[in-house]
Design a protein that fits this description.
There is one protein chain. Helices cover about 90% and strands about 0% of the residues. With about 180 residues, it is an all-alpha fold. It has one domain. The chain starts with a helix and ends with a helix. About 0% of the residues are buried.
Length: about 180
Amino acid sequence: MDMDALLSDSNAPGLPPPPVSPTAAPSPDAENLARIRSILFGQQVETFEHRFAALETDLSTRLAALERTLADRADALGGRLDTLRDDTTARFHAQQATHDAATDALRSALSDVATTNEAARADLNATYAARADAQDETVRTLSATVDRLTDGLSRDKADRALLAELFDHLAQRLRGSSEAASDV
């Protein structure tokens, strides 16, 4: 048998190897082939198997370390996010309380201004009413005074007219007595 024939399967290229029955005992050709492979490539295969095992162990170790690091970082990030959320919530509540207090103070101040405005309006209306009453009283007093003075002037005028009439009558008498005395 040719060495290449022994190393290669008896199958044609591209064809799958013949199925091996698990209960069937290995054929003598297969055993021979396995021994020849072991003799020729055994050392290399063992070296590759050890390298692959070491590489697989190293990768597993690194993967586990990476998973731990990732979990630790995720936990740290979650803790940081929780802290930021708590801080932000606390600041929001503090600002909300400050805003509410300022709003309440503003409402109170506006209420005080409205109350003061109403009181000032009432005082202004009372002052206006008092001044209007005083002005009406002054107008009535002045009107009464003008009426009294007008009546007095009318009486004085009548008295003057009467006096003028008396003086005319007296003058006529005096003329008449002076004419009579001149006749004598």
